[in-house]
């Protein structure tokens, strides 16, 4: 048989291929020749054939048929054969294939070989692909080589020991005696691998960490080595861009970070050397920046002095001015981690951080946006909001939703005045109205309702904002609601804050009718507009007939929701006109109630503490029986026994008594509402109006003092918490609000929460607030689950979580069985 071609010739031939098909043909032809040679047990050219096979494997072609030939080369006595054999084993074998166990004895023999280079090959192979069985069998040999005086073998044995510890953690104590003298070695290769080994042991075992802190006095040794590296002169063997062995410096800094975490004595011992590294390292080259970055991480993670932490943050501030995008990105990420603990120091770099919002790189933009929101407080709210609103105008669509939500939260916490708050939210709705969350509209309506002194100003601003532009639907919805509530103030021109505009009743109705017929208007927006027109029938005097005509037209709309509204409003005009003014009067001031107990965060970021929000009970007053009978008349209940109150109920005495009767004393303030004595009212088969479904009790119980929350899931940085509410309209319904938070350093995207319950329950899963769980616990995703439990059985649930994290798709299942009894009994 002719001699096979050499590896160099094969590479040259393959590179001449002009197409993929031509290359495949060459590879297949050569593989056939190699197989024939393997079958003939040709020992002369086995090494050459395996080398060619490894090259084909690196090109992506199958080479598994050469695994046994690698074992034969390993068993050879020639060094050149062993070298190719071990290389082939590392590339073609792993612990999932049983054939790798066949070379355990060969590795053991080579670890005791008289030639250091053969021993080095065996150590490299074991450290690369050794299974747990191989590691247990050969750990003793590795430990012997770790104590040898040969620096070449010690550095390879240390790295092999790292692999053994990862595979079999219980063998860690075997290597403890050998680590005592490792840091006294002058060879930098041994020092480097020794620090890697010590880092692995400290990370995997708290007992080892305590041992190295107290007994071995590891910190002073590391400080001495690091000081020698900094103060030593030029060493051509270890110099990289003028810095002595930066790789070893970075490894030592990482180990110091582990040793100093939550330990006062260790942190105190390394403060001085960290300050020296931070001040003496050259920053003109990327090598110096890498060391400074590790130094900053170490300073922030240990119990360092305040001055040292300020120095670290100033280094990150200098990184923000670097031309390298990667350096700017890691600086923003690090500042985002430290902003909660060192807020004032980070604030000094606010202008540089805001400048990063104009960067062309989207990753830097996102980190700068998140950090900008973290820096907002009561002192800089106006300036920061100006910059963030400018960013909202010009940023890409993928940023608008997160930016709008952040502006809403910051404005709610730190707004200097209600007028500024309303103007800011209106600016967001005008700029990015289609990207805001669903709760933006009700929150702004509540804010406007509570700002009694600027109703005229607000309705005039909103009227101007939607003239001829209905593209931003949330803005149109808020404007329609305000025009319906305060249309009389708009027409009267009573605005004092800015120059009033002259608007007639017909012009106001023209705008609302245009919203109704616009192709851009959604069904919800049309509902807002129709209700606003109906409300104006009690605020306008000259256009009531026109309003009646518009309402009657939509009584035959193909939109069922719009049709039902129009039919009910038509009935108010015809049959219940005497109650129309009371039903459509202005909404009262509303208190915002949070599910976990109302609190008002006046200032955060270290300015003031959260203060309890005072809840005002509704004023008590008698409920006239005639108004209750009017309500029954509206419901068409001529044969229903009138409701006779047996105890005083909580009612504000005003001209809107009939409206409050209709709403059934819905508890808007969070204070407990008085419940009237039950009356024998027969069930109506089909309520003729939507208003019939309103209950005379609060929709949900206040859970602050009732049902405790639970942690349903906590794994891989993702935490799911459940809070509970019980429905008063149906005691069998439990409303569960989930809150998902993320403590890792990267966002979790495409987050989907699914739940299943036994067949005796019924479950409804509402839409989540977002699909991205922000990193560093900077935000949460909320989602509502409604569970119907008619038999009052113990609640059990199985949840499924899917999301993308660090570029890979994650999926997990979990059982939730620890529901508090109050949530289902």
From TrEMBL:
<dbReference type="InterPro" id="IPR008152">
    <property type="entry name" value="Clathrin_a/b/g-adaptin_app_Ig"/>
</dbReference>
<feature type="domain" description="GAE">
    <location>
        <begin position="705"/>
        <end position="820"/>
    </location>
</feature>
<keyword id="KW-0333">Golgi apparatus</keyword>
<dbReference type="GO" id="GO:0030121">
    <property type="term" value="C:AP-1 adaptor complex"/>
</dbReference>
<keyword id="KW-0653">Protein transport</keyword>
<dbReference type="GO" id="GO:0005802">
    <property type="term" value="C:trans-Golgi network"/>
</dbReference>
<keyword id="KW-0168">Coated pit</keyword>
<protein>
    <recommendedName>
        <fullName>AP-1 complex subunit gamma</fullName>
    </recommendedName>
</protein>
<dbReference type="InterPro" id="IPR002553">
    <property type="entry name" value="Clathrin/coatomer_adapt-like_N"/>
</dbReference>
<dbReference type="Pfam" id="PF02883">
    <property type="entry name" value="Alpha_adaptinC2"/>
</dbReference>
<feature type="region of interest" description="Disordered">
    <location>
        <begin position="600"/>
        <end position="628"/>
    </location>
</feature>
<keyword id="KW-0472">Membrane</keyword>
<dbReference type="InterPro" id="IPR013041">
    <property type="entry name" value="Clathrin_app_Ig-like_sf"/>
</dbReference>
<dbReference type="InterPro" id="IPR016024">
    <property type="entry name" value="ARM-type_fold"/>
</dbReference>
<dbReference type="InterPro" id="IPR011989">
    <property type="entry name" value="ARM-like"/>
</dbReference>
<dbReference type="GO" id="GO:0016192">
    <property type="term" value="P:vesicle-mediated transport"/>
</dbReference>
<dbReference type="InterPro" id="IPR017107">
    <property type="entry name" value="AP1_complex_gsu"/>
</dbReference>
<keyword id="KW-0968">Cytoplasmic vesicle</keyword>
<dbReference type="InterPro" id="IPR050840">
    <property type="entry name" value="Adaptor_Complx_Large_Subunit"/>
</dbReference>
<keyword id="KW-0963">Cytoplasm</keyword>
<keyword id="KW-0813">Transport</keyword>
<comment type="function">
    <text>Subunit of clathrin-associated adaptor protein complex 1 that plays a role in protein sorting in the late-Golgi/trans-Golgi network (TGN) and/or endosomes. The AP complexes mediate both the recruitment of clathrin to membranes and the recognition of sorting signals within the cytosolic tails of transmembrane cargo molecules.</text>
</comment>
<dbReference type="GO" id="GO:0006886">
    <property type="term" value="P:intracellular protein transport"/>
</dbReference>
<dbReference type="Pfam" id="PF01602">
    <property type="entry name" value="Adaptin_N"/>
</dbReference>
<dbReference type="GO" id="GO:0005905">
    <property type="term" value="C:clathrin-coated pit"/>
</dbReference>
<dbReference type="InterPro" id="IPR008153">
    <property type="entry name" value="GAE_dom"/>
</dbReference>
<dbReference type="GO" id="GO:0048471">
    <property type="term" value="C:perinuclear region of cytoplasm"/>
</dbReference>
<comment type="similarity">
    <text>Belongs to the adaptor complexes large subunit family.</text>
</comment>
